[in-house]
Amino acid sequence: MKTEQDYSYGVVPIRREAGEWKVFVLHQISRANTYWTFPKGHAEGDEDAKSAALRELAEEAGITVVGLYTNHPFEHSYEFIYEDTRVEKTVTYFVGVTNESEFTLQPEEVLEARWCTFDEARVLLTYDLAKKLLDEVQVFLKDKQSTMKNFSCYNCDSLFQAETREQILDMLYEHYLKYHQEAMISATADEKRAWMEQFEKDWLEAPEL
Question: Which of 7, 9, 86, 133 shows the greatest Cβ crowding within 10 Å of its Cβ?
């Protein structure tokens, strides 16, 4: 029997609701069956792990994130037999924070999906490995809860969540390039300096989750 290596990348989407974390799970359609899991899929072209994971989340659920914990990936490996091939599978997941409760499913790959409490998700998830991942994410969030902060865009109502100053700056930079590029281009050196001074002050005072 021949053996193949297979790699996928995914996101465990989470959001805050009424002071607690909710997690997004979906009912996946596979070649052999259906099962409850987290959004994931294969990389395309020269995509890196982060790009592949975010694209799969957008394709399967129409969800975008405001923060992605790329510095703490969760890697799970398992194997299965497909036809005459032993497939050695490795899936790398990232925890992704979103503000979106609505989702749009990819009907050819997903039967249904929902936002759940962690206890509800543990009941739904089909495989023990997915339940283990859920438990690992819950422990991770408890460890990080005291350091994660909210931060709002200065030019709109968009809200971002991250642990560090650098992560928030990266998120704001990408956000401004996409939605407020004119403000970036037209700002003078003095205005940019004042913006950074205000940011440093606001980051220190930003509320922790």
Answer: 9
Supply the pTM of this predicted model. 0.72
Separation between Cα atoms, residue 87 and residue 20, nearest integer Å: 38
pLDDT in tens, 164-201: 788 888 899 999 999 999 999 999 999 998 998 888 88
Going by their DSSP bridges, the two strands 85-97 and 2-17 should be labelled as parallel
More confident residue, 206 or 139: 139
Residue 182 gets which letter from DSSP?
H
Domain residue limits, the chain = 2-144, 149-205
Task: Give the HSE-up count for residue 208: Cα atoms under 13 Å, Cβ half-sphere.
Answer: 10
Q: Which CATH number fits domain 2-144: 3.90.79.10, 3.40.50.920, 3.40.50.300, 3.20.20.140?
A: 3.90.79.10
- Among 93, 110, 86, 117, which residue's Cα sits nearest to residue 35? 110
The per-residue pLDDT for range 83-106, each reduced to its tens digit, is: 888 989 999 999 998 889 999 999
Strand partners, 78: 89
Q: Which residue has the tokens 């914990």?
A: 69
CB burial class (10 A; 0-12, 13-18, 19+) of residue 178?
exposed
